[in-house]
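Backbone geometry tokens:
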Amino acid sequence: MNLAYLTGRRLKVFVQQPAFLFVTLIQPAIWLFLFGNLFRKIVDLPGFGSGNYLTYLVPGVVVMSAVSSSMWSGMGVLEEIDRGTMNRFLITPVRRGAVLDAVVIEQTLSVTIQSVIIVLLGLAAGARYPLGGVLLLVTSAALLGVVFSALSNTAGMLVRQRESIIGLNTLLLLPLTFLSSAFMAPGLMPSWMQTVAKANPVNWALETCRTALLGSANWPHALSYGAALLLLAAALVYLSSRTFRAYQKSV
């Protein structure tokens, strides 16, 4: 039993629940419609730098959806614990970290599919992007999915309470999203928000792809933020795999 088997096991569950993917897309579609219409005149502000707010908004909705959906990953871990599946894994030769790594891979695939669909919705509504920018956006969203899926799994294994996962999602989603350039150009944000955004992984994902989406990629800028996001993802995946060992010692 290895990572490929465990990932396939998780993907079978994912494929058998297509309605779940559809439901998770309803909220991003609402964000696109509401925010896109409510703030469409904001591009008239001096210094905003974009002629179409929907074009600016779609990447923000993509990363917000990535955070929102991946933060529920810990719920699946808790379900596995409640059903006794985690305990059964302890008597198999499976690598301990692979159990949670498979959950992260499944969640990352889900985020990737959602991101592509949201971009397609944006394109249908009138947003326009170069292909390279879209690929970079989807990749950044997938990395963000890894970050928050691993974080949620870590919380699930350590705390083992659904209320804690819900509280963590509620606590982080809106502050991290609004303390980034998801909905507002950085130059129009208060100075303290700009400072906080520099340490915000949601903003790292946006900064990785913003210039490429405008057709004039600043590769040193994009790669520096992308590398920071990749390192954070690797660190949190490692941390989540270590929590399985902590769980093993507790049973």
The radius of gyration is 19 Å. The chain has a mean pLDDT of 86.
